[in-house]
Amino acid sequence: MKKKLVVLSGAGVSAESGIRTFRDADGLWEGHDVMDVATPEGFRKNPALVLDFYNQRRRQLFEVQPNKAHIIIAELEKDFEVTVITQNVDDLHERAGSTNVLHLHGELLKARSVNSSDFVEWKDDINLGDMHTDGHQLRPHIVWFGEAVPAITEAIIIVEKADYVIVIGTSLQVYPAAGLMDYARPDTSIFYVDPNPASIPYMANPVQVIAKIGSEGMEIVREKLLT
Ligand code: APR
What we know:
Layout: E1 3-9, E2 28-29, E3 32-33, H1 34-37, H2 40-45, H3 47-61, H4 68-75, E4 80-86, H5 92-96, E5 101-103, E6 106-113, E7 119-121, E8 138-142, H6 152-160, E9 164-168, E10 189-193, E11 207-210, H7 214-226
Parallel strand pairs: 1-4, 1-9, 4-5, 9-10, 10-11
Antiparallel strand pairs: 2-3, 6-7, 6-8
Adenosine-5-diphosphoribose (APR) binds near residues 16, 23, 105 and 170.
């Protein structure tokens, strides 16, 4: 039986594809204060701005491609039972060929009603006046700051069963995602790939920090896993 490998990815895995990370640019995200564009309060205050912000992010998705880090992660399915648990709202893991991806913070290519968690597939802009079938305004299917992370319970169960965990491209600042690796069994090997890795509090697990960009770091991890 294949060993279970869990990849916990953040914005850094998509950096080489040309999608900017959140915290590498003076606290601004594509020129915006995160509180204006990624909170329910921001959406209440200026829904047009928030919709436009995510419309731009969604349009950008169609111009970028998965990079080597995404591809190596997908290729690991040949040798491992891989689950990707990502904080990213892009679909680059799926486009690289990963078949088992759990999005903790939602997905750009889905839209939902402001009145419920019912979502629909959505590739176009979302504009004010675009309604869900329940008669309420559509909003991006994104988990904003201050909102619950419904997928976290499933994510914890997956991490608890992992034989290997790869953490890649995350500053480990945002909870509950940042706490997920704490659920790994103490004998589970953890690899952390990030050119500017955050410090990891003491863990009983064997932890290897690989201070490289995603593509280079994943080459190294693949070699370590397969030899
Ligand atoms: N390869 C790998 N990692 C990289 C690369 C690269 N080429 N370039 C940058 N990084 C790393 C940075 O060193 C940093 O540690 O990616 C990380 C990005 O950190 P953040 O911008 O904080 O992204 P993330 O941890 O995913 O943020 C978590 O915060 O804004 C919210 O909901 C949003 O999901 C997001 C969450």
